[in-house]
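Colleagues,

For the teaching module next term, I've prepared a clean inverse folding example: a structure given as tokens, and then the sequence designed for it. I'd like students to try predicting residues themselves before seeing the answer, so please don't circulate the second half yet.
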């Protein structure tokens, strides 16, 4: 089976995958892929996740953590894996699926979240943001995608950028060096905000400076040694949650390039070649790992198995840079 046929398989794939294949790999006109995209609200993973939200618009009764999360219990232990079922990561997953923000379901839960959801950290209204830049980057991405004014969170993020161009949630504890994880979350948020609003020169400059932080390091290296900053950056995961890997970064640069008409930067070459090298003999990519923790349901067959999500992202990245 050809890779595209596998991705589009009506029996074993999902509208969330199929509409993006039609748009990004096949170049179908919007009139065609928008029909498939509309099914995300009513069929498959998207419909299933939408149906799981609470009457107050939240998921699992909480903003970042489920309402039943025990901060002193086994789920809170190092290495246990945080739960991913609360509102923030449910919204992120629906954004990944491509749920139409104009759909009746999205309009309803976005309004209810604004009315009812509060952050566990300080009881702030959800769409005013939290205090950690990683969480706020995700919130900006979700809010911008779903049509919420999150400009006040963007202003906060601009004031928290470090001298090397990026962000780090540990800056409050004295860190002066940006984090790959935090930076990619903020970058995705700023790009989604720019897509929604056009952005300002200050916001675009901040985004470009953070891109330089990653590009100087070829997306995965230490400047001091030229060695990988973290071996996990070379492993492909799904969903990404807050965690960084080079495929996520490459897909960000692809999305930014499509929005702004920017050509691929030559410093992406090593990361692109790594992606290319991990393709198997039938043109698919496997899932290397999924973040540990409680989930609503799985959307892959498990680590070590071919992943439609990883394959879609890898294939559209290679197409964008012009590599077979």
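(Answer key — instructors only)
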């Amino acid at each position: 089976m050809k890779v595209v046929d596998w991705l589009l398989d009506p029996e074993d794939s999902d509208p969330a995958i199929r509409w993006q294949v039609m748009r990004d790999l096949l170049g179908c006109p919007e009139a065609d892929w928008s029909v498939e995209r509309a099914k995300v609200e009513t069929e498959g993973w998207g419909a299933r996740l939408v149906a799981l939200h609470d009457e107050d618009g939240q998921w699992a009764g909480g903003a970042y953590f489920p309402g039943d999360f025990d901060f002193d219990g086994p789920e809170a232990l190092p290495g246990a894996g945080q739960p991913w079922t609360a509102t923030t990561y449910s919204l992120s997953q629906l954004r990944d699926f491509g749920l139409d923000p104009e759909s009746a379901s999205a309009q309803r839960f976005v309004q209810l979240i604004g009315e009812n959801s509060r952050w566990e950290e300080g009881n702030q209204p959800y769409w005013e943001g939290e205090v950690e830049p990683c969480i706020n980057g995700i919130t900006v991405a979700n809010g911008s995608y779903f049509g919420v004014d999150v400009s006040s969170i963007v202003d906060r993020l601009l004031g928290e950028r470090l001298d090397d161009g990026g962000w780090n949630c540990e800056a409050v504890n004295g860190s002066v060096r940006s984090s790959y994880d935090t930076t990619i979350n903020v970058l995705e948020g700023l790009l989604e905000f720019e897509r929604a609003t056009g952005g300002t020169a200050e916001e675009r400059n901040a985004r470009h400076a953070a891109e330089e932080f990653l590009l100087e390091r070829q997306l995965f290296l230490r400047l001091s040694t030229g060695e990988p900053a973290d071996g996990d950056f070379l492993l492909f995961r799904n969903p990404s949650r807050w965690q960084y890997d080079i495929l996520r970064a490459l897909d960000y640069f692809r999305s930014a390039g499509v929005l702004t008409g920017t050509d691929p930067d030559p410093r992406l070459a090593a990361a692109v070649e790594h992606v290319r090298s991990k393709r198997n003999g039938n043109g698919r990519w496997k899932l290397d790992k999924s973040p540990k923790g409680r989930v609503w349901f799985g959307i892959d067959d498990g680590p070590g198995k071919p992943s439609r999500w990883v394959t879609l992202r890898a294939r559209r990245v290679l197409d964008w840079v012009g590599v077979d």
